[in-house]
Specification:
Layout lengths: L29 E9 L4 E11 L5 E9 L5 E6 L3 H17 L13 H6 L8
Length: 125
C-alpha cells in the first residue's frame, strides 16, 4: 500500500477532506406514539413517528400506522436537512391530532424503537 501519495477521495477519514461528521447526529431524538380508539365504531388505531439518522448521517422520518396489536404499515422519508424532517413530523402530528389521535397515558409502553419495530427490519438502515 502506497501511503506517500496524495489522497484522492473526499471521505472524512482523509486529513485533507473538508467535510464534517456533525450531520450524523440529530439535535435531539424525535419519537411519538399516538392512538385513536372508539369502541362504538370498533376503531383501535395507532400512529408512530420517529426521526433517526441513517448510516450515511442523513435524517430519516419513519411513519408507522395500523390497528393496535398488529405490525401495521410503514413509510420512510429521507431528507437532506433535519429541519425538513422536523417540519414534516410536526405537520403530520398536527393532522393526526386534528383527527382525534392522542397519547395513551394509561399504559406503560416500551421505548418506541421496540414497540414500533418489533421483528420488522429497520427501513432507515
Amino acid at each position: 500500500m502506497n501511503r506517500s501519495g496524495p489522497t484522492d477521495s473526499q471521505v472524512s477519514l482523509d486529513a485533507k477532506a473538508g467535510t464534517s461528521d456533525s450531520s450524523a447526529m440529530l439535535a435531539q431524538p424525535y419519537q411519538l406514539y399516538i392512538e385513536r380508539t372508539d369502541a362504538t365504531k370498533n376503531m383501535a388505531r395507532f400512529y408512530a413517528l420517529a426521526i433517526e439518522a441513517t448510516l450515511f448521517g442523513t435524517p430519516c422520518l419513519t411513519r408507522r400506522w395500523g390497528r393496535i396489536g398488529t405490525a401495521g404499515q410503514a413509510m420512510v422519508h429521507h431528507f437532506d436537512k433535519e429541519e425538513d424532517a422536523v417540519r414534516m413530523f410536526l405537520d403530520l402530528l398536527h393532522t393526526k391530532r386534528a383527527r382525534g389521535y392522542r397519547p395513551n397515558t394509561n399504559v406503560r409502553r416500551e421505548p418506541m424503537v421496540w414497540a414500533v419495530r418489533g421483528n420488522i427490519p429497520d427501513p432507515c438502515r
